[in-house]
C-alpha cells in the first residue's frame, strides 16, 4: 500500500504551525491563566506555592539543597542556551503562506506547484550570514533567505541568500572562507562586522570571490528592510515533470515593495542606535497588518540546452542575466504571522537544502553538493540529537511513517515490537513498504567513470560577470561601490593585501581599480601582477549581454510605492498645524507611517493653542530611523528647532543620506545652512535639488505638495544632490 494513500490530506489551506495539531498541543501550555484556576507548576506538573522565595533554613538562613523547585528552575535556566548556528546565527522569522499563480505542471510534478487554489504554509527565516547572534542587523553582509514550505508531500526547504551568487565555487573552500570572514581567532575581533586583514587576505588570493565581492560592496549588502530585499536560490536546481522531462531552474524572490538599501553611514549609525532595525521592521510590519510579500520567480532552461548560456550553469559564482532568460513569476509568499516564541520557532527551525519533494532535484553544482550533508550534521549538535524533525516548527504537515527509533529527546511513542521492514509480525501478513505512488525519485544522471579532484575548465572565468555587474550599475551605485572598497580596504593593515586586491579589481574594470587605488594612496593597479599569481583564472567568456538592468537597484527605484515608509515630522511649540495635518493625512492614506518628533515627550502647543502629542524625541529616534522628513511652518517652532543642535543635525543627516525633505513656510530655515531658501521661489513650491521640496503652506491644500512629496519618497533616495559631501553629518 502506498504511504501517500494513508496520509491525511484534508486541509491544504492551513497556516503553518497554527493548524498543525502537534503545534497546537504544545502552544496550549502557554495559554494558562490564574483566573482559570491554573497557577505555576514545576516541570513535573506540581503546583507551586511560591515563585518568589527559595526554601531556607529560617527566613535569614541558608538555602536548602532539598529545594527541588529552586533546583529545577535554576538548572533549566543554566541550560537555556544552545549553540548558535556556526553561520547565519543572527536571524528572525515569521509564518505565512505560499500561493501559486498558475500550475507548473509543465515543468515539475511537485504537488505544491500544481494547483493555484492551494495555499501552502511557510516559515521564513532571514539572517545575516557571518555575524554572531549578538551582531547588529545592518552590518554589510549577504543575508540568508530560507523558506520552509510545509507541503502535502513533505517539507521542502529553499535555503537561499539575498544575492544570486556565492563567494566560492567548491564546498571545500567554505570553511576557509568563513574562517577568514569571522572574527580573527586569536582575539575574536572584530565583533559584529566581517574581519579585515584575514578576509581581504583570502579574497585577494582567491579571485573567484570577486563577483560576490562586487555584490557585497554594493548597497545590496545593506538592505533597508527584509521586506525590500530580493532572494535567490543561488544554485541551479532541477525541475522534473511527470513525464520525467528535466529542466534546470534558478529561483528568485522579488519583493513587492521594490529593492531598496541603506546608505553605509546610515547603516553604521543604525547598528548603534537600533541593532534590531531589520527584525523590528519585519515584526512591526506584520503586527500592523502590513504583511510583506515576495513573488516567486523562476528561470528555466531545458536540460541539455544549458551550454547555450556560454558559461557553466553549475558554477555558483555565476548568475543567469535576466535579459538573457527572463524570470517567470509563478506565485507569492505572504508573511502574516509573527512567531509566538523566538526560541521555539526561529531558533529551533532547521533548514536543509536536501529537504526536497518529488519533482525537484539537485544539480551537480559542487557547492550545493557540499551543503547536502552539512545541514543535518549541524542540527545534530545544535539541536541536541537526531529527533529535531519532531520539534513543532520542523514537523511536516503530513504524517511520518518509518522505522527510525530512539535518540535524544524522542517525542513519538512508536508502539509494537516491529521496527524493521519488510516484516510479517506487524499485521500477520507480509508487509513491504518500499514503494509509493508519489515517492521521491532522484533523476537518473549518467556519471563519468573517473574520479577527480579538479574543477571544470569552464569554472576558470572569474571576472566576466563581475564586470557585467559593474557595467550595469548607475553612477551613484558605482560611487558607493568605490566608497565601500575604500572603507573596507582602509581597515586592512597589511599594505600588500590592499595592493593585491586592487590588482585583482583591474580585471573587473580598470577605472574602478584606479579609483580605489587612488583613494587608498597606493600604486596604480597592475593587472599583470594579479594574473601572475597562483590560482588566478581569467579565461573570460564573451557574455551575450554586457549590461543587465535587473542588476541595478536604481533602474527599478521609480516603480515603488511609499507604503510603510517612515516620515518624521519635526515640531516644537508654535508649530503651524493645519498644512502639516493635511500632508500627514495624505501620506498616511498612501500607506506611509508618520511620527511626530520633538525635543521631549509630552505635548507641544500648536500656533492656535491646540495640543499635539510628540511620539518620539530626536535622541531616541534620530533621522536614520526614517525615510523622509517633514518640517512644518511656524515662526516660533522653527526658531526653536534652529537652536537645537539635534534638530539641525536631524535634517542635515537626512539630507546627506539622500532622504526626501519637505519644508513648509518658515520650516525651510532649518535648511538655510545648505543654501536653500523659500524666498527665491516665485512659484511658492520648488525643488532646488532632487528630493528637497520647499513650499508655501497654501500650496498644500490644492494637493500639489502631497503629490511631489509622495513621488520623491517613492524614489527611495536621492543620491545626486548638491553639496552632500560638504554636509558634516
Ligand atoms: Fe549555508 N549553512 N552553507 N549556505 N546557509 C548553514 O546550517 C553551509 C551556503 C544558508 O535560517 C548552517 O542549520 C556549507 C550557500 C542559509 O537557519 C550550516 C556551505 C547558501 C542558512 C551551513 C554553505 C547558504 C545557512 C548553519 C558551503 C545560499 C541559514 C546552521 C558548501 C544559497 C538557515 C545550519 C537558517 C546555514 C553550511 C553555503 C545559505 C553550517 C557547508 C551557498 C540561508 O549547515
| Helix fraction by DSSP (H/I, runs of at least 4) | 25-40%
Mean pLDDT: 91
Q: Main β-sheet: number of strands, strand sense, barrel status?
A: 10 strands, antiparallel
Unreliable segments of 5+ consecutive residues: 1-22
Number of strands: 19
**How many alpha or pi helices?**
20
What percentage of amino acids are in beta strands? 15-25%
Q: Measure the end-to-end span.
A: 71 Å
Bound molecules: CIS-heme D hydroxychlorin gamma-spirolactone 17R, 18S
Which structural class should the secondary elements be placed in? alpha+beta
Please tell me what the overall shape is. Answer: globular
How are the SSEs ordered, and which strands pair?
Elements lengths: L2 H4 L14 H8 L39 H11 L11 E11 L18 E10 L14 E9 L2 E8 L12 H8 L15 H9 L4 H8 L13 E2 L4 E4 L5 E10 L8 H10 L3 H11 L5 E10 L25 E11 L3 H6 L12 E2 L4 H17 L81 H8 L3 H16 L4 H11 L4 H11 L6 H5 L34 E5 L6 H13 L3 E6 L3 E4 L5 E4 L1 E2 L10 E4 L3 H9 L1 H12 L3 E5 L20 E5 L2 E4 L2 H4 L2 H11 L15
Parallel strand pairs: 11-12, 11-16, 12-15, 16-17, 17-19
Antiparallel strand pairs: 1-2, 1-9, 2-3, 3-4, 5-7, 6-7, 6-10, 7-8, 8-9, 13-14, 18-19
Give a verbal description of the structure.
This protein has 729 residues and is of the alpha+beta class. It contains 20 helices and 19 strands. The strands form three sheets. Strands 1, 2, 3, 4, 5, 6, 7, 8, 9 and 10 form a ten-stranded antiparallel β-sheet that branches. A seven-stranded mixed β-sheet has the order 15-12-11-16-17-19-18, sandwiched between helices. Helix 4 runs antiparallel to helix 5 and helix 5 crosses helix 13 (495-505). The longest helix is centred in the middle third of the chain and has 17 residues, at 366-382. The protein is globular. The termini are far apart. It binds CIS-heme D hydroxychlorin gamma-spirolactone 17R, 18S (HDE). Residues 85-88, 91, 125, 127, 144, 146, 159-161, 166, 171, 174, 234, 349-351, 367, 370-371, 374-375, 378-379 line the site of CIS-heme D hydroxychlorin gamma-spirolactone 17R, 18S.
Amino acid at each position: 500500500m502506498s504511504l501517500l494513500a494513508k496520509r491525511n490530506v484534508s486541509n491544504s489551506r492551513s497556516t503553518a504551525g497554527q493548524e498543525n495539531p502537534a503545534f497546537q498541543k504544545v502552544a496550549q501550555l502557554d495559554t494558562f491563566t490564574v483566573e482559570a484556576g491554573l497557577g505555576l507548576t514545576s516541570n513535573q506538573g506540581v503546583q507551586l506555592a511560591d515563585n518568589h522565595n527559595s526554601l531556607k533554613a529560617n527566613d535569614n538562613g541558608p538555602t536548602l539543597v532539598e529545594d527541588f523547585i529552586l533546583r529545577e528552575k535554576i538548572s533549566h535556566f543554566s541550560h537555556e542556551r544552545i549553540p548558535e548556528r556556526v553561520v547565519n546565527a543572527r536571524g528572525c522569522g515569521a509564518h505565512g503562506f505560499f500561493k501559486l499563480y498558475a500550475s507548473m505542471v509543465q515543468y515539475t510534478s511537485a504537488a505544491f506547484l500544481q494547483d493555484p487554489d492551494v495555499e501552502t504554509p511557510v516559515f521564513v527565516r532571514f539572517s545575516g550570514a557571518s555575524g554572531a547572534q549578538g551582531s547588529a542587523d545592518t552590518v554589510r553582509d549577504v543575508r540568508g533567505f530560507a523558506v520552509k514550505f510545509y507541503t502535502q508531500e513533505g517539507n521542502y526547504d529553499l535555503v537561499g541568500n539575498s544575492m544570486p551568487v556565492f563567494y566560492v565555487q567548491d564546498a571545500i573552500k567554505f570553511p576557509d572562507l568563513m574562517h577568514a570572514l569571522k572574527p580573527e581567532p586569536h582575539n575574536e575581533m572584530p565583533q559584529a562586522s566581517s574581519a579585515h586583514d584575514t578576509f581581504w587576505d583570502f579574497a585577494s588570493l582567491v579571485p573567484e570571490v570577486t563577483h560576490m565581492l562586487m555584490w557585497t560592496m554594493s548597497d545590496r549588502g545593506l538592505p533597508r528592510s527584509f521586506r525590500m530585499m530580493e532572494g535567490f536560490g543561488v544554485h541551479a536546481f532541477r525541475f522534473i515533470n511527470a513525464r520525467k522531462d528535466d529542466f534546470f531552474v534558478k529561483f528568485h524572490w522579488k519583493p513587492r515593495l521594490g529593492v531598496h538599501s541603506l546608505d553605509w553611514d546610515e547603516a553604521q549609525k543604525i547598528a548603534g542606535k537600533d541593532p534590531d532595525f531589520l527584525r523590528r521592521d519585519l515584526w512591526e510590519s506584520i503586527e500592523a497588518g502590513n504583511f510583506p510579500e515576495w513573488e516567486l520567480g523562476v528561470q528555466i532552461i531545458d536540460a541539455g540546452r544549458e551550454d547555450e548560456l556560454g558559461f557553466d550553469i553549475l558554477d555558483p559564482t555565476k548568475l543567469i542575466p535576466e535579459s538573457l532568460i527572463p524570470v517567470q513569476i509563478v506565485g507569492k509568499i505572504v508573511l502574516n504571522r509573527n512567531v509566538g516564541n523566538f526560541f521555539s520557532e526561529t531558533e529551533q527551525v532547521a533548514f536543509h537544502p536536501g529537504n526536497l519533494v518529488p519533482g525537484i532535484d539537485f544539480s551537480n553544482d559542487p557547492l550545493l553538493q557540499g551543503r547536502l550533508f552539512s545541514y543535518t550534521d549541524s542540527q545534530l549538535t545544535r539541536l541536541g540529537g537526531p529527533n529535531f524533525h519532531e520539534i513543532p516548527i520542523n514537523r511536516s504537515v503530513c504524517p511520518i511513517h518509518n522505522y527510525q527509533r530512539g535518540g535524544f529527546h524522542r517525542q513519538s511513542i512508536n508502539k509494537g515490537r516491529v521496527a524493521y521492514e519488510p516484516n510479517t509480525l506487524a499485521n500477520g501478513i507480509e508487509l513491504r513498504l518500499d514503494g509509493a505512488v508519489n515517492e521521491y525519485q532522484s533523476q537518473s544522471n549518467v556519471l563519468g567513470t573517473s574520479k577527480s579532484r579538479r574543477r571544470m575548465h569552464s569554472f576558470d572565468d572569474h571576472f566576466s560577470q563581475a564586470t557585467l555587474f559593474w557595467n550595469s550599475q548607475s553612477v551613484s551605485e558605482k560611487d558607493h561601490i568605490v566608497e565601500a572598497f575604500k572603507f573596507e580596504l582602509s581597515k586592512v593593515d597589511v599594505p600588500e593585501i590592499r595592493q593585491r586586491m586592487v590588482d585583482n579589481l583591474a580585471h573587473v574594470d580598470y577605472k574602478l581599480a584606479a579609483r580605489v587605488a587612488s583613494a587608498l594612496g597606493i600604486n596604480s593597479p597592475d593587472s599583470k601582477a594579479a594574473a601572475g599569481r597562483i590560482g588566478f583564472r581569467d579565461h573570460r567568456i564573451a557574455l551575450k549581454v554586457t549590461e543587465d538592468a535587473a542588476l541595478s537597484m536604481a533602474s527599478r527605484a521609480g516603480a515603488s510605492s511609499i507604503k510603510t515608509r517612515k516620515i518624521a515630522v519635526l515640531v516644537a511649540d508654535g508649530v503651524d498645524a493645519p498644512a502639516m495635518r493635511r500632508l500627514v493625512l495624505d501620506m498616511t492614506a498612501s500607506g506611509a507611517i508618520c511620527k511626530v518628533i520633538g525635543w521631549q515627550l509630552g505635548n507641544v502647543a500648536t500656533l492656535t493653542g491646540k495640543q499635539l502629542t510628540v511620539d518620539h524625541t530626536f535622541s531616541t529616534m534620530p533621522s536614520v530611523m526614517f525615510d523622509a522628513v517633514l518640517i512644518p511652518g511656524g515662526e516660533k517652532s522653527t526658531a526653536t528647532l534652529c537652536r537645537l543642535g539635534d534638530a539641525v543635525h536631524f535634517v542635515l543627516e537626512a539630507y546627506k543620506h539622500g532622504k526626501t525633505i519637505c519644508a513648509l513656510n518658515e520650516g525651510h530655515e532649518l535648511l538655510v545652512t545648505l543654501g536653500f531658501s523659500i524666498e527665491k521661489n516665485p512659484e511658492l513650491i520648488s525643488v532646488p535639488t532632487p528630493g528637497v521640496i520647499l513650499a508655501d503652506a497654501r500650496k498644500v491644500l490644492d494637493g500639489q505638495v502631497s503629490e511631489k512629496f509622495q513621488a520623491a519618497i517613492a524614489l527611495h533616495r536621492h543620491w545626486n544632490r548638491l553639496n552632500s559631501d560638504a554636509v558634516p553629518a
